[in-house]
Amino acid sequence: MSVLSRFQNIFKIEELKRRLLFTFSLLAVYRIGAHIPTPGINGEELSRFLTDRGGALMGFFDMFSGGALSRVTIFALGIMPYISASIIFQLLTVVIPAIGKLAKEGEEGRKKITQYTRYGTVFISAVQSFGIAIGLEKMANGQFIQTPGWGFRLTAMITLTAGTAFIMWLGEQITERGIGNGISLIIFAGIVANLPNAIISTIALIKAGELSIIFVIVLLVLMSIIIAAIIFMERGQRKIPIQYAKRIVGRKMYGGQSTHLPLKINTSGVIPPIFASSIIMFPVTVASFISIPWVQDFARQLSPGSIIYTIVYISMIVFFCYFYTAIIFNPVDIADNLKKYGGYIPGIRPGKSTSDYIYRVLSRLTFVGAIYLSIVCVIPEVLIRKFNVPFYFGGTSLLIVVGVALDTVSQIESHLLTRSYDGLLKKGRIRGRRG
Q: What is the DSSP pairing of strand 237-244 with strand 247-249?
């Protein structure tokens, strides 16, 4: 069966077709909102100023908002406050026992944490939007603001906070009634929205003779290899065999079956690059607005492209890979649960020996995953600065795009296969990042 026929199967399933149309409709609403200006702001002049002076941090966060931040539209904050709140509560489940207990209470506990995450998102959005309003008034003596004052500050704060809350609602609706993870798809849409501009600028450079056709072909082949490598690594797992002992309950015998414990190569996902970029770029962006020689020199040393920046960036990615993996994956709990239900790893004693073995395997996998993330995140610097590639390719954005695409296709495959249709791929079923 051809690939076209496999895609036609999607529209033969009424529920799947309805979910896809619903998802595309809400993503279209998000992209329209990303172009609605915030009241009281001279958007075009401010966009040019922020693009010139914002630096790498502005470009990093503007990528997640689909360009809405540089234009200061009603969706300028994007979905980043929600991501920040989610990460904070995920960390608090380890630090605060009460929240950790809540996370283990099943569906009701998850609903409570989701509710707290929403409140946290609104609070973070309100603080950030008020700070943006104050900063815009002070920036260039307030020339980008039509009527400075408390009226503008409150209007901007309410508008931007409501914009983020609306995006959060869109994401939840997509997750519940659409296809794929709504929040991830919104980030995906914001990143992919920059693709047409990259294609247009590349074609213009080819016509102008600044790029050769041979170079573009080689670049496309290289991009395909990188994407294939990312897919391979994101789906890569180390399967630890688990054997369950036989138990006799009454007149029946239970257990005795074999299974495995899957450990991903990249357990931490895209969190390490996001944390590392944010922490490094924040002082650099602040320093770029201070006209002191040694401060400016400090900013240049930590700017993308320098050797110091690359070393610090890679070091922080490795650190956060281990840090975040340690938070979300506890070998001791896994060993205790295996022992509780009569499971064991062949050749390994239950209890502490099992947890130590899982920890050793996980540490080695995390090291490989950290090196892989570091290479992918350094690729844009090499392509842009060494080979003069006219667009940004690689890094966090590529990891998100590939990962979200894998997860979404995996869900579509599930709908097709459960209704006895062939999947999108010829052999087997594609496995998303969550396996």
A: unpaired
Q: Which residues contact 305 (CB under 8 A, 6 or more apart)?
A: 381, 385
Residue 434 pLDDT exceeds 50: no
- Cβ–Cβ < 8 Å for 121, 168: yes
Query: Phi and psi dihedrals of 264, rounded to 5?
Result: -75, 150
Cβ(376)–Cβ(368) under 8 Å? no
Query: Is residue 55 pLDDT above 60, yes or no?
Result: no
The Cα–Cα gap between 163 and 39 comes to 13
| Domains assigned to the chain | 16-180 (1.10.3370.10), 234-393 (1.10.3370.10)
Residue 91, token pair as written in the block = 């960390």
Q: Mind listing the pLDDT tens digit for each residue in 293-325?
A: 777 777 777 777 678 888 888 998 999 899 888
The runs of H, that is alpha helices, within 178-270 are 182-192, 195-207, 213-235
C-alpha closest to that of 171 among 159, 189, 156 = 189
- Residue 2 is predicted with a pLDDT of 47
- State both tokens at 294: 């040694």
CA–CA separation, 170 and 283 (whole Å):
33
